[in-house]
Amino acid sequence: MPPPKAAPDFEHTAHGMVLGTGLDIYVHDHDSLRTKAAKEDIAAARERGQVPMRRADYARAEDTSQAVTNHPPRLVRRPGRLTDRKGPHHDRHHLRE
After folding, report:
1. Alpha helices, DSSP H only, in the chain?
2. Distance between CA 88 and CA 84 in Å, rounded?
3. What is this structure's pTM?
């Protein structure tokens, strides 16, 4: 089984921060994940059930979470307005409402 990718880990972390739930995160300071020490450290974190994340990515997830929770909603989703056409943003003129 291939190792998990960083992008879904970031997305799950940011989402969990917004909701007040989420993953057990292991923040690390490895510059490169190609070293033996980094690989062993990351593997050990995953064995403990933790999600390893670079410190910079964790800080970005915190910033994303703060931006979401501190920003008032600007768009009210109405049934059929955003998702019933060819895609979620097919008809952009209604976003200026």
Report:
1. 6-19, 36-47, 55-70
2. 8
3. 0.64
